[in-house]
C-alpha cells in the first residue's frame, strides 16, 4: 500500500513541478481508469483556448490505472479529461474547475463515477456530459447512423437538453450562463456535424428536422463566451457549412465575408476567420483576392502572427526556379521543361485512375482551345504507374487529349512529384516565361479565376 501511495505522489510531483511556487490555488483531480484491457499509459488534461481544446497537462497512468493532476486554476472554466476517447466522441469527461476543488474519478468504458472532498459544480456538469454523450453517436466518424434513426430521435434529444437547461440555477450566475451555453452548443454542434459525416442513406436536400430552422438567425454568433467551450469554433464552422450546402446556390468557399454578417462579436470574428484560413487550403490567388476583406477583422496578436507565418508558407516557392524534368510523350519522344523557356507553362499532374482528374479534362480541353496560339503551354503530366504506360497512351488517344502529353517515370516517386511534394492529384503548377514558379498549387481549369489570372499574365 505504501508503494502505491508513493507512486501516486510521484506522478503529481513529476507532472506539476514546472508550476511556479507563487501559484497558491489549485484544483486536484485523482482518477482511476477501470476499463478491461486498457492500454493507454498517459492521460491528457485539456483546457480551452479560443474555442478549441488546448493541452494543459499530461499525467502518466500507473499499473493500477491511476493518474492525477494538481493544476493551477487562475479562472474558473471547463477542462476535459482525455484517455484516448475525447476526439472520438465516445465519452465526454468535462469538468468545471475552480481553485480548491478535490475531485475523484472512476472511469469506466461508457461512464464515470464522480466523488471527492469538493467537486464544486461538477454533479451538474456530469448531467450535461450525459446529454452530450447521447448526441455523440450521431456525430461520430464511422458511426454510420443515418437520418432514419437521427431524425425521429432529435426532437426528443433537444427537448431533454432544454428541460435540463431549465434546472441550471445555482448561486453562481457565471457558471449557469456558461453551462447553458455549453449544452446548447453541444446539441447544435453535434447536429450540424451529423450532416458532414459519410452515411449509407441520405434524405432529400429539403428534408431537414424542423428544429434546425429555429437555430438559424441573422445574427447567430453574439456571445464571446463561445470561445470558452472546446467546440465553440467547431459550432461556427459546422453551422456555416450546413447553411452553405443547404442553400439553393452552389456553395462558394470564397464567401467568407458573407459569414461575418452573422457574427457580431469581434473576438468571434477574429477566431473564426483564423480557423477558416488555416483549413481552407486556398491558393495564392484566392487568398490575395480575399485578404483585404478579412484582415481588418483579424486584429488579435495571435491572428497577426498566424497570418505572417501563413503568408510565408503560401509564398515560399514563388519565384524559385522550376524543376527541369525530362519525360517521354506518347511517341516516346523526350520532352524537357526547359524546352518551354520564353512561354508561360501550366502543368496538370493527373492519372487515368483519378476520377477528380478526369473531371477536369473537359475544362482543360476548353482552356487549351481558347488560349491556343498565345504565349502559354499546357502540359498534362501523368503520374500513372510505369506498368500502365500503354493504358495511359490509349486513354490519351481515345479521349483526344490536346496540349503536350507526358508521363513521369516513377509515378509518385518521380522527381516532379517529390520536388513539389505531390501526395494527391489533381495538382496544377504554373510557371513564368523564365521557368520560375508562379504557383506550385495553382488554380484548377474548372475555376473561372484561372482565366482571369492567365489573361493578366499574358497582357503583362
Automatic annotation (TrEMBL):
Instruction: Report domain Thioredoxin positions.
Output: 316-459
Signal sequence, start to end:
1-20
Q: Which CDD domains match?
A: TlpA_like_family (cd02966)
A Pfam cross-reference name: AhpC-TSA
UniProt keyword Signal, yes or no:
yes
InterPro entries assigned: AhpC/TSA (IPR000866), Thioredoxin-like_sf (IPR036249), Thioredoxin_domain (IPR013766), Thioredoxin_ResA/DsbE_sf (IPR050553)
* Keywords on record: Cytochrome c-type biogenesis, Disulfide bond, Redox-active center, Signal
Query: So which domain of life are we looking at?
Result: Bacteria
Transmembrane stretches, by residue range?
Answer: none
* Localization in the cell: Cell envelope
Please state what the protein is called. Thioredoxin domain-containing protein
Amino acid at each position: 500500500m505504501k508503494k502505491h501511495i508513493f507512486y501516486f505522489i510521484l506522478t503529481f510531483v513529476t507532472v506539476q513541478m514546472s508550476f511556479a511556487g507563487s501559484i497558491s490555488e489549485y484544483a486536484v483531480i485523482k482518477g482511476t481508469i477501470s476499463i478491461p484491457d486498457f492500454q493507454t499509459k498517459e492521460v491528457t488534461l485539456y483546457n480551452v483556448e479560443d474555442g478549441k481544446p488546448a493541452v494543459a497537462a499530461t499525467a502518466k497512468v500507473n499499473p493500477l490505472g491511476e493518474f492525477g493532476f494538481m493544476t493551477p486554476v487562475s479562472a474558473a472554466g471547463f477542462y476535459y479529461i482525455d484517455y484516448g476517447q475525447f476526439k472520438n466522441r465516445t465519452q465526454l469527461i468535462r469538468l468545471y474547475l475552480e481553485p480548491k476543488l478535490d475531485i475523484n474519478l472512476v472511469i469506466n468504458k461508457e461512464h464515470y463515477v464522480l466523488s471527492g472532498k469538493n467537486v464544486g459544480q461538477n454533479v451538474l456538469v456530469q448531467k450535461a456530459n450525459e446529454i452530450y454523450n447521447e448526441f455523440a453517436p450521431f456525430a461520430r466518424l464511422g458511426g454510420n447512423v443515418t437520418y432514419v434513426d437521427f431524425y425521429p430521435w432529435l426532437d426528443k434529444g433537444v427537448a431533454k437538453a432544454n428541460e435540463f437547461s431549465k434546472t441550471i440555477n445555482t448561486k453562481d450566475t457565471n457558471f449557469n450562463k456558461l453551462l447553458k451555453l455549453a449544452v446548447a452548443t453541444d446539441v447544435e454542434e453535434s447536429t450540424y456535424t451529423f450532416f458532414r459525416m459519410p452515411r449509407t442513406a441520405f434524405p432529400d436536400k429539403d428534408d431537414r428536422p424542423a428544429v434546425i430552422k429555429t437555430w438559424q438567425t441573422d445574427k447567430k454568433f453574439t456571445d464571446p463566451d463561445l470561445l470558452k467551450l472546446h467546440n465553440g469554433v467547431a459550432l461556427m464552422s459546422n453551422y456555416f457549412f450546413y447553411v452553405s450546402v443547404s442553400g439553393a446556390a452552389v456553395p462558394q468557399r470564397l464567401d467568407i465575408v458573407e459569414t461575418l454578417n452573422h457574427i457580431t462579436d469581434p473576438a468571434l470574428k477574429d477566431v473564426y476567420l483564423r480557423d477558416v484560413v488555416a483549413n481552407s487550403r486556398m491558393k495564392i490567388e484566392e487568398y490575395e483576392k480575399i485578404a483585404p476583406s478579412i484582415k481588418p477583422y483579424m486584429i488579435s496578436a495571435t491572428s497577426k502572427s498566424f497570418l505572417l507565418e501563413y503568408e510565408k508558407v503560401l509564398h515560399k516557392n514563388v519565384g524559385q526556379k522550376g524543376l527541369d524534368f525530362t519525360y517521354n510523350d506518347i511517341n516516346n519522344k523526350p520532352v524537357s521543361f526547359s524546352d518551354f523557356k520564353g512561354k508561360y507553362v501550366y502543368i496538370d499532374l493527373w492519372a487515368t485512375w483519378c476520377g477528380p482528374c478526369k473531371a477536369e479534362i473537359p475544362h482543360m480541353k476548353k482552356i487549351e482551345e481558347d488560349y491556343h496560339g498565345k504565349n502559354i503551354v499546357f502540359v498534362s503530366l501523368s503520374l500513372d504507374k510505369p506498368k500502365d504506360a500503354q493504358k495511359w497512351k490509349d486513354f490519351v488517344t481515345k479521349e483526344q487529349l490536346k496540349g503536350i502529353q507526358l508521363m513521369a517515370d516513377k509515378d509518385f516517386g518521380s522527381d516532379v512529384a517529390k520536388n513539389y511534394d505531390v501526395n494527391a492529384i489533381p495538382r496544377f503548377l504554373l510557371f513564368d516565361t523564365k521557368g520560375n514558379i508562379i504557383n506550385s498549387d495553382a488554380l484548377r481549369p474548372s475555376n473561372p479565376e484561372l482565366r482571369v489570372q492567365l489573361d493578366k499574365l499574358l497582357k503583362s
